[in-house]
Design goal:
The chain is mostly helical. The strands form two sheets. The chain has a two-stranded antiparallel ribbon. A two-stranded parallel ribbon has the order 3-4. It is globular and about 45 Å long.
């Protein structure tokens, strides 16, 4: 990606994310209050992820799991995982838990579109072309996010970490590499539009709207 492309992408990230935070402020506040009232623990989950050039950062999401959930199990949550709160299940279905990622974008740790950030234990295993994934900012959404938008259905309820590593991670990494090697601003806009459309349709289905 050329320097001019990086600057253009960064400019778009800043404008859209700042406007998004302002417009969504009432929703962000409301979700935060609901989480605080229904589950002990912090409003935000700030897990460590690997960012640009391998630098670790704290991913900001609304907390959808019980406090200290990482002590109780692995990094993946499968179907009917007891660590996910009742409010968390709704937030995950609507993808509202990812909205605080916009703050990571403003800070410069993430982009609106880019390889979805992974935990260090998996990025440490990158080889060959997979290392290209770390040459761009991770994103809120990408090709792998669209492909695995209902991730829990792919990894099931038993041996979820092993299933993720065997059934999901290789394809995720392939799609992440494909994104980096074929990047274009138009491609980013298309991925963003597809993501919004998928979330909207998913919300309609869960609400019984046809």
């Amino acid at each position: 990606m050329k320097l001019s492309d990086r600057l253009l992408k960064r400019g778009l990230d800043l404008v859209v994310s700042i406007v998004g935070i302002i417009v969504l402020a009432p929703l962000l506040l409301s979700v935060g209050i609901v989480i605080k009232l229904t589950s002990p623990g912090p409003v935000f989950y700030r897990g460590v992820r690997t960012g640009l050039y391998g630098k670790p950062f704290r991913l900001m999401k609304f907390r959808t799991i019980v406090q200290d959930a990482e002590v109780q199990g692995g990094p993946s949550t499968g179907l009917d995982d007891a660590r996910v709160t009742s409010v968390g299940r709704v937030l995950r279905r609507l993808k509202f838990d990812e909205l605080p990622n916009l703050f990571n974008v403003v800070i410069g740790e993430m982009s609106l579109v880019g390889p979805r950030p992974e935990v260090p234990q998996y990025t440490a295993l990158y080889t060959g072309d997979e290392k290209l994934i770390l040459t761009v900012r991770p994103g809120i959404t990408d090709l792998s996010s669209l492909h695995f938008i209902d991730l829990q259905s792919h990894i099931g309820a038993v041996d979820v970490d092993a299933n993720f590593e065997r059934l999901v991670l290789p394809e995720k990494n392939r799609l992440r590499v494909e994104y980096v090697m074929n990047w274009s601003l138009l491609g980013d806009i298309k991925i963003l539009a597809r993501t919004i459309a998928r979330i909207f349709l998913s919300g309609q289905k869960s609400s019984g709207i046809h």
